[in-house]
């Protein structure tokens, strides 16, 4: 039984028909006809006209997918190293700020602002210093932690920019201190005298001064122990109001071997004929200079380590940000008319 030839080309247009010896007809379509047929199939596919394209076939739905061309550009080592470091920095900043806020509330915040306006002791309030440093660390740690984990380029830019500002501010401060060291020394001495005058007014300041005099530098006053005469409570004129601390110095000025046996060893030491062998007579400012001269190497090592950590953090943040931008640039939208179809 003879079978009719099955073709996909028009037998009358641009086609060549050849009869084989076995009686079957073969048809070779002209290339122009092939192109027209391909365009027809493509147009049917892009218009979702699947009934016309395949009358017995199920319907096809177009799918647009976001694909990557090759491997990820983002280094997981840098990403999670940034995350681990900054989450610790974030938690530490939160704890420091919480301690400072709690201490400040306990001391009456509005009184602190009043002393700031009158005496200018803002920068030497330990509680306020904790609050400012803690809040700054909290926001920087948050930006670095979330920015690295969520691959957020804006947060990473804020993190690196903040660290860069801190780094250059420290560099400028150190340069200015070295150039104007005499002026800085005089200004520091002036601020330390304000701290002595406010000794009894701020419990946190009092604890800090006691720690410096008793445990760290083993000193008394700014330049010598007689600087305590500028404090109202220790001035000899306080005898008129019956102050037991008049003409004396704080107990933190007492030498350790005398302090354990007599907590009032500093009383009366500002009298002209008083014996001062039980207290430290050298001031804290010269003692601090001596301490830094003896520990110049450890101090320099700490400064170098902090500087390197800041520079590495800036470099890692910028490197991670550039990797994220490079990865986003490699994402493309593929919308080929026949590649991304699926059946019901």
TrEMBL record:
Q: Which UniProt keywords apply?
A: Membrane, Transmembrane, Transmembrane helix
Q: Which domain of life is it from?
A: Eukaryota
Report whether Transmembrane shows up as a keyword of the record: yes
Ranges annotated as spanning the membrane? 80-105, 126-149, 155-180, 296-320
Pfam families per the record? Tetraspanin
Q: What's in the GO CC field? A: plasma membrane
Q: Where in the cell is it found?
A: Membrane
How does this protein lie in the membrane?
Multi-pass membrane protein
Report the family membership.
Belongs to the tetraspanin (TM4SF) family.
Name the record gives this protein: Tetraspanin
Q: Which organism is it from?
A: Adineta steineri
List the lineage, top down. Eukaryota, Metazoa, Spiralia, Gnathifera, Rotifera
């Amino acid at each position: 039984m003879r079978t009719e030839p099955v073709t996909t080309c028009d037998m009358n247009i641009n086609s060549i028909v050849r009869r084989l010896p076995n009686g079957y007809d073969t048809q070779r379509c002209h290339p122009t006809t092939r192109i027209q047929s391909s365009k027809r199939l493509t147009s049917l596919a892009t218009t979702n006209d699947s009934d016309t394209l395949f009358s017995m076939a199920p319907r096809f739905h177009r799918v647009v997918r976001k694909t990557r061309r090759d491997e990820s550009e983002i280094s997981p080592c840098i990403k999670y190293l940034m995350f681990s470091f900054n989450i610790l920095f974030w938690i530490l900043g939160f704890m420091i700020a919480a301690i400072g806020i709690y201490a400040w509330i306990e001391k009456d915040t509005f009184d602190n602002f009043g002393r700031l306006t009158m005496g200018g002791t803002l920068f030497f309030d330990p509680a306020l210093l904790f609050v400012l440093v803690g809040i700054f660390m909290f926001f920087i740690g948050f930006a670095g932690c979330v920015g690295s984990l969520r691959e957020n380029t804006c947060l990473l830019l804020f993190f690196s920019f903040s660290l860069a500002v801190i780094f250059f501010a420290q560099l400028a401060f150190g340069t200015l201190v070295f150039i104007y060291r005499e002026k800085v020394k005089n200004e520091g001495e002036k601020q330390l005298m304000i701290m002595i005058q406010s000794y009894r007014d701020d419990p946190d300041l009092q604890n800090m001064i006691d720690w410096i005099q008793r445990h760290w530098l083993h000193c008394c006053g700014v330049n010598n122990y007689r600087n305590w005469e500028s404090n109202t409570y220790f001035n000899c004129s306080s005898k008129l109001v019956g102050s037991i601390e008049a003409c004396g110095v704080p107990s933190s000025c007492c030498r350790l071997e005398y302090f354990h046996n007599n907590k009032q060893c500093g009383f009366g030491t500002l009298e002209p004929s008083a014996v001062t062998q039980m207290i430290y007579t050298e001031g804290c400012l010269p003692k601090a200079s001596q301490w830094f001269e003896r520990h110049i190497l450890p101090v320099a090592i700490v400064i170098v380590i902090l500087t390197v950590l800041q520079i590495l953090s800036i470099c890692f943040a910028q490197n991670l940000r550039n990797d994220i931008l490079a990865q986003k640039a490699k994402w493309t939208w593929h919308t080929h008319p026949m590649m991304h179809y699926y059946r019901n």
